[in-house]
Q: What sequence folds into this?
């Protein structure tokens, strides 16, 4: 968790950080904070989730041969945490690849 006492506290500290908060106007920032408060149960489950996290899981880091995954590259961000991070990175990457292919 990168030194965070919890995911919720860590995310709240990120939202409050000047480098991040300049991108969120008042209503958006308040909405993000309210969403974190409403979904405290989900964030608490992340705190209990301990598995191997790649940290940068995306198609560019997958080795595929004959339509099978044969390896995963680029492990420098690996850590113990919640596997949802890797799922989120993969979903974000897929959307980015789809958007680029439409251009």
A:
């Amino acid at each position: 968790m990168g030194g965070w006492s919890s995911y919720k506290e860590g995310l709240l500290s990120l939202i409050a950080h000047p480098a991040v908060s300049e991108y969120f106007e008042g209503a958006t920032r308040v909405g993000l904070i309210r969403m974190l408060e409403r979904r405290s149960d989900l964030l608490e489950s992340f705190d209990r989730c301990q598995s191997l996290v790649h940290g940068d899981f995306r198609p560019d880091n997958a080795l595929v041969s004959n339509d099978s995954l044969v390896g995963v590259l680029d492990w420098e961000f690996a850590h113990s945490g919640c596997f949802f991070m890797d799922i989120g990175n993969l979903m974000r990457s897929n959307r980015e690849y789809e958007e680029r292919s439409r251009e």
